[in-house]
Design brief:
six-stranded antiparallel beta sheet, 6 strands, 11% strand, single chain, alpha+beta
Length: 295
């Protein structure tokens, strides 16, 4: 599960020494009790703890460890032959019940054990299907069974993860933060470039146009508050980047109800921020700007 991989396995992998089974189970129990059971599930809309205790006591049930272990085993489907055999991983197993002949059954198996598998049909457990060897000679048959057992007992070499650089939950958060900072700097650079181009264009027009009849006109008064300026100002005030959906909504409001003055934007957004309005609710700020401009 992604939850346990991100919050348990990656954190344990960063330890100087690998934890024992008991220590890992302790960490997992703490994570389940303190975090997983108290986090709202995306499908149910409730925390697992609240959902469990909302059931009447007579409907609450606890599953035995051996049953739970069997449920968590790998599962596949196989058709029972006319002779009562199923095929799994190039091996044959004899089903325990003759009524299953010709039926598609559900087979659960332990990858490290080849001697038997567990057979289910129509949500009912029928027992174990044992390994079948097509050999009539008893000694040769036992020899083949022993060889298969030895193959199952051979240790599988699993490469250690020492040479793999850790990429934990905190590292992912750091990478996302760096990406946001880079996007914010890129937006600032684009706005500065546009402002520089506008300034150069204004200077060129000023040199070619006749002198203004208003001697008190200053350069600051001629600076226009555009949609790009509004986007940059909201990015700074809300302290977050605006995605494509936010920019589209902002452009729609600007074309329909704008243009807005910089002073109006600062007063409206500042008032909402002071009242604790969430920075993620951009539509709330746009509605407030629309109402303020209509007054």
């Amino acid at each position: 599960m992604r939850f346990f991989y991100e919050r348990l396995e990656t954190e344990l992998a960063l330890r100087q020494t690998l934890p024992t089974i008991e220590e890992a189970n302790t960490y997992m129990a703490a994570l389940i009790g303190q975090d997983y059971h108290r986090t709202v599930h995306s499908s149910t809309g409730q925390t697992p703890e609240d959902r469990f205790f909302k059931f009447p006591p007579q409907y609450r049930r606890f599953v035995a460890k051996n049953v739970l272990a069997m449920v968590m085993l790998p599962c596949t489907r196989s058709k029972v032959s006319k002779t009562g055999l199923i095929h799994l991983n190039n091996r044959q197993y004899l089903v325990p019940d003759g009524t299953l002949y010709g039926q598609w059954v559900e087979v659960r198996y332990d990858p490290s054990v080849y001697s038997s598998v567990y057979v289910w049909f129509s949500d009912r457990y029928y027992g174990e299907a044992h390994l079948y060897v097509a050999q009539t000679d008893y000694l040769k048959r036992q020899e083949q069974l022993d060889r298969l057992e030895h193959l199952a007992e051979q240790a599988v070499s699993i490469p250690t993860g020492i040479q793999i650089p850790p990429y934990s939950y905190l590292e992912r958060k750091l990478a996302a933060h760096r990406q946001e900072v880079a996007e914010l700097k890129l937006n600032e650079a684009l706005i500065q470039v546009k402002a520089k181009k506008g300034q150069i264009k204004a200077e060129l027009i000023k040199t070619t146009a006749p002198a203004s009849t208003q001697p008190n006109c200053s350069s600051e008064a001629g600076r226009e508050f555009t949609l790009d300026s509004l986007t940059y100002l909201l990015t700074v005030l809300l302290k977050r980047t605006l995605d494509a959906h936010d920019r589209l909504a902002l452009a729609t409001v600007w074309r329909t109800y704008g243009p807005f003055s910089e002073d109006l934007v600062r007063k409206t957004v500042g008032r909402l921020l002071g009242e604790g309005h969430p920075a993620s609710d951009l539509m709330g700020y746009l509605d407030a700007l629309r109402l303020a401009a209509a007054r």
